[in-house]
Amino acid sequence: MSTEGKCPVMHGGATTVSMGTKNEDWWPNALNLDILHQHDTKTNPLGPDFNYREELKKLDFAALKKDLTALMTDSQDWWPADWGHYGGLMIRLAWHSAGSYRLADGRGGGGAGNIRFAPLNSWPDNGNLDKARRLLWPIKKKYGNKISWADLILYAGTVAYESMGLKTYGFGFGREDIWHPEKDTYWGAEKEWLARGRFDDNAKPASLENPLAAVQMGLIYVNPEGVGAKPDPLKTAQEVRETFKRMAMNDEETAALTCGGHTVGKAHGNGDAANLGPAPEGAEIEDQGLGWINKKTRGVGNQAVTSGLEGAWTTNPTKWDMGYFKLLFGYEWELKKSPAGAQQWEPIGIKEEDKPTDPEDPTKRCNPIMTDADMAMKMDPIYNQICQKFMADPEYFAQTFARAWFKLTHRDMGPKVRYVGPEVPKEDLIWQDPIPAGRKDYDVAAVKAKIAATGLSTGELVATAWDSARTYRGSDMRGGANGARIRLAPQKDWEANEPARLQKVLAKLEPIAKETGASLADVIVLAGNVGVEQAAKAAGVNVTVPFAPGRGDATDAQTDAESFDVLEPAADGYRNFMKKDYAVTPEELMLDHTQLLGLTAAEMTVLVGGMRVIGTNHGGTKHGVFTDRVGALTTDFFVNLTDMAYKWVPKGKNLYDIVDRKSGATKWTATRADLVFGSNSILRAYAEV
Question: In angstroms, rounded to a whole number, what is the distance separating the alpha carbons of residues 12 and 49?
Fold first, then answer.
């Protein structure tokens, strides 16, 4: 038999040949642990010894800004700049990189450069931003590892605004790149781009599915043509308000960003969208990572198609000015169709001198346009009032926008101490969750001795420390033990924190902090350490839990209580807590929490098993406490979970009896968050260890 044409490699590599049926295809309901290991260090080409913060110290910040400023007007034939200025394109790149952030779980945003990878690099709303990244490549190549893609993309947008006349608020470097897609981040359940199916009630924007913020699959914010592509500025205003709220912006910030974002640049829809090729992830190999290529007509410059809308918002789209307001409020507007067929608003009876010129031919003038969201700024009473304030005080508008832009591009970056560079603002902002520095010069051993003498149980000590720490989110570096915000509203009243038990413990720990000079944040963590050490000793093992002092105690004035509401645990598998039943399983909720905490599957396994036997369950329940020696850090959870002397009998939606096979007596009870460590093959392998 001839072997000509047969595949010369084993299937399963990066080929176009089918890789065969995957595990998740055969068993779609099996728990997928991939989200815990999506940034394996082996994928990082810079190696384990690379320190980005150290590399940043070598960066010539002034030279970088000079090069970026020059780039803005260095138009390229392969992708010509509108009006000879790439400012609008670079702003959109930065905006869409940062704009995927959502407050509910802190995921998305520009803090890791994830717009370079799928699905974000191929979202319909990110059309042609691949060209902006290629325009930045010579600068990235010049400065190498001294500047991350994440920093460069967002800084390019900030420099673009400066080059067009805006006095920006500042900039902080320090974002480290990821090296492959965050493919396990939940972006929605829709199976097609721009589908609309994430509202319980389409007439109620607040019914948008959590943790999502964008209204449709593949959009950053809202549909520019209107709700469900049906223009209605008042309805669009409500979706704009909800989606920006979920991205941590209030009404004034939302209005400033909308108006300021459209003060420069243009929308592109002067052609037939059907001529565009596939997005970058689906493009041919010879396209070299570029997508949406038009191979039938010119398709660039004044004939480019991106959103499908066509036109600029202002008379001078490369200048920071008040032109947006002049046109929006100075004319009446009517619905028209762009050359690509998109619905957009155009002015009635506009003066010739108020029209922007063609982006390539200065002898031609074109109608400006507005999206449905722009019209919402005029027609919604609240947004209209804010815009009137902006129009009456251009300096106030510029300052408000500059601060909102800074927040947009830094919201997911974490505490201000992570900011690097000469342009970091001195002001502490409430959304940065500021925390004063704590002392490090106190006697740690003396603090631990005082904690041990309080009479608090090991379970109380460990549970309180855990509750203080478990709010941490690696997605945006919010929450955690630093700041001791567990003693402040809203955390002190959360059901998951058992307020009565919490106050009992804090009443014992607060005097220790005052007596020793340690912060309460440090004392709470040390209390957990003392509890673990006591539990280990009770099991016959002497251990010392490592500790680093220096946490500070935040105040109410330093705490944006409303934004901390989203950190409230709906479930905590580590303490066997479920606020109510959810559509997703307890083990899936535990997996999501674990990923935000930055823990691995092995670390999750050992923590759950240890916390069960120490006795940290919420409300003191006995579910999963597979031991007769509660308070001792034994391996009993794993030993009894894997013992075939027992069988597991369902007693309800999330409750099971652990029954002795011989006697038929119920020995213990358990939840799904316990039994998953025996049922899932990977977690069972860890449990067996």
Answer: 31
DSSP letter for 473, please.
Answer: B
Tokens for 408, please give them: 């947009």
- Sign of CA pseudo-dihedral 93, 94, 95, 98: positive
- Would you call 346 helix, strand, or coil by DSSP? strand
Whether 369 has a pLDDT exceeding 80, the answer reads yes
Residues written for the chain: 689
β-strand pairing of 655-660 with 666-670:
antiparallel
At 332, list the tokens: 């009446």
Q: Which amino acid is at 554?
A: A
Query: Which of 187, 649, 243, 595 minimizes the C-alpha distance to 587?
Result: 595
Q: Quick one: DSSP state of residue 670?
A: E
- Residue 97 phi/psi, 5-degree rounding, is -70, -45
Q: Could you give the count of Cα atoms lying within 13 Å of 77 in the half-sphere of its Cβ?
A: 0
CB environment 478-511: b (16+ within 10 A), e (fewer): bbbbbbbbbbbebbeebebbbeebbeebbebbee
Q: 185: closest CA among 381, 35, 289, 65?
A: 35
669: β partners: 657
CA atoms of 114 and 133, how far apart (whole Å): 12
Cβ–Cβ under 8 Å, residues 508 and 429: no
**What's the half-sphere exposure (Cβ side, CA atoms, 13 Å) at 502?**
21
Q: DSSP label at 669?
A: E
Whole-angstrom distance, CA of residue 521 vs CA of residue 481? 6
Helix or strand holding residue 240 (H, E):
helix 233-245
Of the residues 85, 96, 410, 593, only one is catalytic, namely 96
Q: Is the pLDDT of residue 16 over 50?
A: no
Residues in CB range of 590: below 8 A, 6 or more apart: 571, 572, 573, 574, 604, 608, 673, 676
Q: What is the pLDDT of residues 416-468, one digit of tens each?
A: 999 999 999 999 999 999 999 999 999 999 999 999 999 999 999 999 999 99
Which tens digit of pLDDT belongs to each residue from 340-367? 999 999 999 999 999 999 999 999 999 9
Among candidates 99, 72, 62, 55, which has minimal Cα distance to 410? 99
Q: State which H helix or E strand residue 138 sits in.
A: helix 129-143
Q: 588: helix, coil or strand?
A: helix
> What six digits make up the tokens of 187?
């972006």
Phi, psi at residue 173, to the nearest 5°?
-90, 165
96 is catalytic: yes
Q: Per the structure block, which two tokens stand in for 654?
A: 């999330």
Query: What does the H/E/C string look like for 153-213?
Result: HHHHHHHHHHHCCCCCCCCCECCCCCCCCCCCCCCCCCCCCCCCCCECCCCCHHHECCCCC
Residue 4 binned pLDDT confidence (cut-offs 50, 70, 90): low
CA pair distance 15, 13, nearest whole angstrom: 6
The Cα–Cα gap between 644 and 657 comes to 14
In this prediction the pTM is 0.96
19 pLDDT above the threshold of 70: no
Neighbours of 378 (CB within 10 A): 17
Calpha distance 383→503 (Å, rounded): 43
Span 19-43, mean pLDDT?
Answer: 86
* Cα–Cα distance for residue pair 65/489, rounded to 1 Å: 42
What DSSP string describes 593-621? HHHHHT--HHHHHHHHHHHHHHT--GGG-
* 293-303 per-position pLDDT tens digit: 999 999 999 99
